[in-house]
Amino acid sequence: MRKGIWDCRFQIPDFGLQSQICNPQSAILRGVRLAPNGPVQDVCLREGRLEEVRPICNLQSAIRNIEGDGHLLLPGMIDPHVHLRSPGMEAAEDWDSGTRAAARGGVTALFDMPNTRPATTTPARLEEKRALAGVSRVDWGLYLGATSGNPEAIASAGNIAAVKVYMGSSTGDLLVDDEEPLERVFRAAAAAGVPVALHAEDEGIIRARMAALRGDEDATIHGWVRPPEAAAAAVRRALALGERTGAALYFCHVSTEAELALLREAKRAGRAVVVEATPHHLFLDEEDVRRLGNYGKVNPPLRSQRDCAALWEAIRDGTVDVIGTDHAPHAREAKERPYPEAPSGMPGLETALPLLLTAVLEGRLGFERMVDLTSGSAARCFGVESAGWVLADLSTEHSLEPGEIQSRCGWSPFVGRRLRGWPVKVWVRGALVFDGGRFGKAGTGREVCFRREG
Length: 454
Ligand SMILES: [Zn+2]
Prior knowledge:
This protein is an alpha/beta fold and 454 residues long. It has a domain at 75-389: Metal-dependent hydrolases (TIM Barrel). The chain has 15 helices and 20 strands. The strands form 5 sheets. It has a 6-stranded parallel β-sheet. The radius of gyration is 21 Å and the shape is globular.
């Protein structure tokens, strides 16, 4: 039997108070809003569901009140794309520091990517990572990494978010580029009933561009080294493989107008395709790389303003299904190396919700759409239940300072940006994991259960 899988039911916190009368699975939040401009109201949380406060509940559970101070209550973010870097790269992050960052950012469930050292490519490696995840403060799930030779692992992996395929090389040594092994991976995933999650960039195009570098370039060349054509070519190839094999496809970090056109068409044709966008591709563009240098080096690269606008359009028209942070921290020391050696990736767990809530307040995005992008849609696509709640402060503007960053990397491309919507309290299945700067116990998180049809 699988270990540590939660029972998919939200439990209400016991705040150390004994209630003789009220259902122990319910609590009252006093004075919260359920939408940014919504009325301030009291709500009852019962077994993970929001209910109106009924007179009987109101009376009997007075001692279980939590003051909401007029803040916004929203579902915790389910982040399908996170690199917690452990095992093997703990100088950048581990399950303790990374899930503190998640709790602080209102991310109450996250799925960890397999490009660690060693890479998570077998059931035994999944078990090793499950042991590390024991300290997690938020709920978690794992990806299995595809290699050219592990279709048996895909068949026997059990409870995984998806099989991650790197069609273009990035951090770590996972890469499946040749047609025959790629097709084997897609077929094995389809047979096992798990999606294929794609890092879709064409390795051939990237290698050819890298070979043309002199070696003294800076990070502003990165968008040329990994151009939009590389992403579109890989998306096209993955769609064809998906069609041939019947695999369900999850496209990670889609960042260009060209990819979005292909994926919009695939969705119209009724293909089983889920599209993810990252906050950094929405809130940063290639101009920011001048300022950020290697700290703005990420795969796929930050794109043109035109691509960025296309991504916002795709957020609004439903082509993008899910926001995933692609939280991919690296130590400063590594980012300070010359461009060719500096690793790609940036942290994102602590800033995603404030960035998006600020966009909501600015009228760039509807609130309900935002909630679906950060929790509802991921829950549906991956077959998990949303198990967390966030109380977010919309009235106080605050800019992130390096000293408050919980991720071990200690930096963020969004330092200094004035944002609202910072979480003030965060619950995971009823346990308070973040409370105005204090953190709950390590080990509160449980492995999520991926429920799929068939
Ligand atoms: Zn990633």
